[in-house]
Prior knowledge:
Blueprint: H1 2-23, H2 28-35, E1 38-49, H3 51-56, H4 67-76, E2 82-94, E3 100-103, H5 105-108, E4 113-117, E5 128-129, E6 131-136, E7 141-145, E8 168-173, E9 181-192, E10 202-205, E11 217-219, E12 225-232, E13 240-244, H6 245-256, E14 264-265, E15 268-272, H7 275-281, E16 289-294, H8 299-303, E17 310-314, E18 317-318, H9 322-330, E19 337-344, E20 347-354, E21 356-357, E22 373-375, E23 380-384, H10 387-393, E24 401-406, H11 411-414, E25 422-426, E26 429-430, H12 434-448, E27 450-457, E28 460-467
Amino acid sequence: MKQVFGVWxxxxxxxSAVLAHAELPDFTRLAKxxxxxxxxxxxxxxxxxxxxxxxxxxxxxxxxxxxxxxFEQFGKNFAPQQQRKQRSLGSGFLISADGYIVTNNHVVExxxxxxxxxQGATGKNDSIxxxxxxxxxxxxxxxxxxxxxxxxxxxxxGDSDALQVGEWLLAIGNPFGLDHTVTAGILSAKGRNxxxxxxxxxxxxxxxxxxxxxxxxxxxxKGEVVGINTAIIASxxxxxxAIPSTMAxxxxxxxxxxxxxxxxxxxxxxxxxxxxxxxxxxxxxxxGALIADVVAGDPADKAGVQAGDIVLSVQGKPMEDSAALxxxxxxxxxxxxxxxxxxxxxARKEISVTLGERKTAGQSQGTExxxxxxxxxxxxxxxxxxxxxxxxxxxxxxxxxxIVKVERGKPAAEAELMEGDIILTANMKPVNxxxxxxxxxxxxGQKRGALMLQIMRHGETGFKTVMLGK
Length: 470
């Protein structure tokens, strides 16, 4: 009897093992079929070099924290500023046989030369130069074009909205310069906001994503691109984020057609509704976006939207929070009608709004780059706001400098300032000219070793302290 029971248990265990093995996906065919459409991207740009880097090079990377500031001061006495080539690596993927390539904007931004390796498509291993067709900084998407005398393999976009948490996914890219690396995992979550921009709506995956994967595809088991691998959390492991394909396809289609990227505009200040606020207004749940203010003369004002309204849905789609409202309106075309359902005075009310065009400060459209004057101590380039920008964002004439560039490794970057931020005051003094900001930086910031800036970002105002050192 014991022998029979032992044989039976062995069969059960073996059967379970076989069943478990059979349920695991096989990625070999997917990797083979899709890999040839994935490209490696390398860029070159000219930048300034001097100080410690010119003398000590890579040794600084192994030094204790903050020791580099000593070498920076030391190096200034010996090393003139030099121009040198800066190189970076990333990934991308072909979306058409005639050579259109999608990648991240941050992979190619500011590059003088962009080269791609088409994995033997040219008949040799050398990379070929690509042209930047256009880019959208707000969603971190760029479109490139290469010209070769043959049809190229390409990938198709899938429907990221149809993805279910737990689905198997495959990432292909160029992590740490290791070309065509394949990693697999599952969809961990949808709709993640990692505070990287106005339209955060990332897919989260546990497929291994590392520096160099940026711009590469995240594929479903059908071989469709459901995301563009874009971001990681430096302090985390096994967590990566991808731009959803539904967003990416819309942006790339606009760029490819020669249009500038355009988005709908309501003209409101929005916030999230908490549980107590929902209760006070008679709502059974806290979902919805709170209209905190309405800009006079803008589309929402003309349509009758009021401060205190709670937007429950747009085009019939429920709005979970303010971020969902921002994405929903931006996804609609300027001039189109947005059908809103709002909660007002304890009842639902339908409002039709003819949308304006969102003109986000600092947004890159096509290949045109906004020019600004450099501020060396802070590590930013800024320009005054136009009259139209002031009126649209309701900013007083005495204030307003748009940050159009933030240099990596400089004080402004360390203070987490971003391109598109608007400087309203410096040390509580209004600033609206480059010269005015420079004077405060010189007379107060550098003497005190710190500068407090009042910043407007996506309609919200706050303060950032930039450490300059004495």
